[in-house]
Amino acid sequence: MPITTCVFDAYGTLFDVTAAAREAAAEPGNAALAGCWQKLAADWRTKQLQYTWLRAVAGAHTDFWQVTQDGLDWAMEASGLSDPDLRERLLALYFQLSAYPEVPLMLATLKQRGYATAILSNGEPGMLAGAVDSAGIGEFLDDVLSVESVGVFKPHRSVYDLVGQRFGTTPDQVLFVSSNGWDACHGAGYGFTTVWVNRAGEPMDCLPWRPGTVLSDLTTIPELAGRP
User: Fold this and answer.
1) pTM for the whole structure
2) With 215 labelled, which of 15, 46, 59, 185 sits at a CA distance of 20 to 30 A?
3) Are 21 and 40 in contact (CB under 8 A)?
């Protein structure tokens, strides 16, 4: 069936998860971070994701904002940083992450062509609203779907169910786009047409499913959605 609905993961897909550490490192007084911001950003993201998986497996759900704080605390300790003011600054910047440059035009084009658009994210509703508002992309989204409505993180099947419940679609009518290889793979296993936005040029995850398309950015998503 033709694609009617384009759904995007948020963090790392629409929003640059390295932006908070990069921007804080450039601010006066943050010389210690300037020497290690790339490591901190990578560790922060890794632990953030690991904690979602571990909590999902253990049945110990908490919201993504708590997981984000926990991941940052681990990453700061790993980099030898203990400044509470820096911690608060990094969290404030994460609440208003920058979108990747191609995102606004890509989403506007999808809307102009008649597609429904949405975010499907681990993010807590408040932090997602902050990022959407900061990036100025709210007018191009029909909805922002959060795992908080089902109380478990991706890749639990109930998270992907949220799309059909909201839009009345079958999985094959949905183009699902994620920068996380494991998320794109599980989306494919669910039945979505999937795109892995592999910005970092990483190897394919060794899982039973594969994304239908691999891209380096989101620029060509509108054309991809329109393919027969």
Assistant:
1) 0.96
2) 46
3) yes
